[in-house]
């Protein structure tokens, strides 16, 4: 436990960035190698992983200290919380599929043709294949694995925000 406390924040942020990059790479592998097309909620989760990864990369490069470290940790946790909420919505849709399922247009088409105020409700309604489970590992769907990963990112962000600044910078 003491060794974990002495882990430099820069190294933690770098590990988060690498983890997010690995998750995004696996999503692209499932899409392009296995032919599993992402639904609109999956795309939003990818954006959340990308934003958490970018926040972590900047945290690793800038090596924030003191109040900035706390702020950086909270921003990371907030980004992961947003992605986790999308995952929870998709899990709910998977366990309670709508009675009528219609395949709507993909995310890029909707964003290019409609105002964002029209696109967001359509995304969260989960029309099309957001309720469909295309892949599982150890009995869990992609959305369930995503909520687990986002939960870990929230905990890491909060840990970064709440850690003792003296212990956090004992080693650089």
From TrEMBL:
Keywords: Cell inner membrane, Cell membrane, Chaperone, Disulfide bond, Electron transport, Membrane, Oxidoreductase, Redox-active center, Transmembrane, Transmembrane helix, Transport. Residues 30-47 are periplasmic. Residues 1-12, 65-70, 164-172 are cytoplasmic. Disulfide bonds join 39-42. The chain crosses the membrane at residues 12-31, 43-62, 74-92, 142-162. The keyword Lipid biosynthesis does not apply. It is a multi-pass membrane protein. It comes from the Bacteria. Its main location: membrane. SUPFAM superfamilies: DsbB-like. InterPro entries: DiS_bond_form_DsbB/BdbC, Disulphide_bond_form_DsbB, DsbB, DsbB-like_sf. It is found in: Cell inner membrane; Cell membrane. Required for disulfide bond formation in some periplasmic proteins. Acts by oxidizing the DsbA protein. Belongs to the DsbB family. This is Disulfide bond formation protein B. The gene is dsbB.
